[in-house]
Amino acid sequence: MRIEILTIDGCPNGSAAERAVRHALSELGLETEPAVRVIRTPAEAAATAFAGSPTVLVDGVDAVPGSAPIQDLACRVYRTADGPSGHPSAEMLVPALRAALGS
């Protein structure tokens, strides 16, 4: 399983997204190391499933569906149980991780 966190320079939510990914992995007993990739140009964004910073990909697929890929170097807003957030919660990421495991 490949987990990638796509972010832009100066994103205030990149590290929070990484913490959420690590928490979700820990919850499932997985030792996979997430990769962090900084998107620097609109062309880089267009070549990925980047849907705003941060975007978490599991095997190349957006872990939190519902946002279309964009080419802008922009922030992303997630709808969480606690209201809008600049990063996904661990609870939002667990289903995508489980699906990638086939469970």
SSE inventory with pairings:
Layout: E1 3-8, H1 14-27, E2 35-39, H2 42-46, E3 55-58, E4 61-62, E5 78-80, E6 83-85, H3 90-101
Helix pairs in contact: 1-3
Protein name: Alkylmercury lyase
What does this structure look like?
This protein has 103 residues and is an alpha+beta fold. It has one domain. It contains three helices and six strands. It has helices at residues 14-27, 42-46, 90-101, and strands at 3-8, 35-39, 55-58, 61-62, 78-80, 83-85. The protein has a four-stranded mixed β-sheet with strand order 2-1-3-4. Strands 5-6 form a two-stranded antiparallel ribbon. Strand 1 (3-8), helix 1 and strand 2 form a beta-alpha-beta unit. Helix 1 (14-27) crosses helix 3 (90-101). The longest helix has 14 residues, at 14-27. The two termini are 13 Å apart. The model has no long low-confidence stretch (mean pLDDT 95).
Within the largest sheet, what's the order of strands? 2-1-3-4
What's the story with the biggest beta sheet?
Answer: 4 strands, mixed
The counted number of beta strands is: 6
What count of structural domains? Answer: 1
